[in-house]
Amino acid sequence: MQDPRIEKIAQVLVEYSVNVQPNDLVFIMGTILAGPMLEAVYRRVLGRGGHPSLQVTLPALEEYFMYHASEEQLRFIPPVLEMAVERYDKFINILGAANTRALTNVPPARQVLRSQASEPIMRRLMERAAAGELQWVLSLFPTPAYAQDAEMSQEEYKNFVFGACLPDLDDPIAYWQRLSAFQQAWVHYLADKRTLRVRAEDTDLEMRIEGRPFINCDGKENFPDGEIFTSPIEDSVNGTIRFTYPATYAGRRVENVRLRFENGRVVEAHADKGEEFLRQMLDTDAGARYVGEFAIGTNKGIRQFTGETLFDEKIAGTCHLALGRSYPESGGKNNSAIHWDMVCDLRQGGEIWLDGELIYKDGDFTFTPGA
Known about the structure:
Oligomer: single chain
Shape: globular
Number of domains: 2
Helix content: 25-40%
Largest sheet: 8 strands, antiparallel
Order of helices and strands: HEHEHHHEHEHHHEEEEEEEEEHEHEEEEE
Radius of gyration: 20 Å
C-alpha cells in the first residue's frame, strides 16, 4: 500500500507549486527510484487537464556516461531537452539517487566540461521562469542513499522528508501559503536596504544589495522550501566566511570550506577535505568565483544537516551563499556554468545586519516587520 503522504506531496507540487492548468505542457522527470512520486504526479497532472510528458532515467547510466563519454558526447545536449525548455509550460523534477557518491571519482575536468555544456540550457530555463513563461519545481523522493547520508534509518528519513514537506498534513497547501505571507513581510521590509553584513565564528562578510530584490521562496520552485534570497551586487562582496556544513557538488563533498572575497571575487579558498576539487570548480569560468545568491533559511521543520542541499539550505537559523550563476528575478547579472550552495549556521552567536541594524541573531529574526 502506497504511503498516503506521497499523494499529498503530489497534490502540492501539481496544484500549488506549478499550478497546472488545462492544456499546460508538463515535463516530468526523475530516476526510476522515484517511481511512486512520478506516478502520483503524472496522475495529478492528467486529472488537472494538463499534458504530461514523463522522462525516467536509470541512475547507473548517469555514472556510466560521466566516466565513458567522449568530450564531444559530454558537450552534447539532447535536442529534446532544448525543445522542452523552450516549449513546455511546467517542469517537475523529482530527485531519487541510488548512490549520492557515484560521481566522486569522475575527473573534475569532465564535470566542468559537462557543466559548461549545460549552462545555456539552465540560463534559458531561468530566463523563461523570470519572465513568467515557465514554472518549475524540484523535489526529492526518499531513497536509502539519502538516508545513509543523513545517518538515519530508511523509515526515519522518510518521516524527516515528509515532515519537512507536510508540516500540516491535513491542509499542506494552506501551510505553505502561511509561510509565504510571513516571508513576504520580510521581502517588503528588505526592499529598500543597501548593505548587508554577516557575522559568525570565522565569518565577517559584507555586501551591497541596493536595487536587488529579495525573493520569497515558498514552495514554488523547491519543495520543501523556506528561504528568502537575493543576488548581491557582483563586485561588492568583501571579507571572509566559513561554511559550517560540508558542501556537496557533482557528487563530491568538500568539508570546512573557508573563502575570502575581495571586490566580489574569491581570492582565497581552503577546505579540510576536497580543496583541490573546490579550486577546480572555482576555475570553471569567470563567474564561478563570484556570488550569485545570498539567502536566509526559514524552514523550522528542518533543524539538522542531512547532506542533501535541497534540505540543508532551508534549515531555519542558517544562511547560505551560492557561488556562480545568479537568478534573473533577483537582479543578478553573474553568469556561470555552476551554482554551488554552501551553508553557514548562525544559531550559535551568528548575526545579520542591514544598513547598520541588527535584524537576525542566534538563528532567528530579532523582530517582525509591521508588528
